[in-house]
Amino acid sequence: MAIWLKINGEKHQVDAQPDTPLLWAIRDHLEMTGTKFGCGIASCGACTVHLNGQAVRSCVLPISVIGDQEITTIEGLSSREGKAIQAAWDELAVVQCGYCQSGQIMSATALLETNASPNDADIDAALSGNICRCSTYTRIRAAVKHASQTISVKEV
What DSSP assignment string belongs to 50-64? Predict the structure, then answer.
């Protein structure tokens, strides 16, 4: 069955069953492999993408419920907040193994897009569903704060 999805600003036709999880449409049908499979039950956050700006778990979201909503993957992350998060990740050497990082970055970006100055509790709450096997949580939190400060400096 042909289903149209708007991903990273472009319309894509996916020939898949309506109950196919968005993750598999993105990875297998469209070959955008930045979004990762982790657990398949929305518990680890590796598959996080944005749906109309909200961080969602793509491994449990059937493509039939998406309709015309805008999907953003790590490949299409281009907001000011997303760029600041990615730069902070590099500057602070957050990544260790890297497997969870696209999900972490997507969740952190969604946070900064709604809360320009998050405190530790805000960051922990927003990223609580993202598991890092290497336990880089301290660096992740520092990078979110750094990105927030970078954005606020540019706004002045």
Answer: EETTEEEETTS-BGG
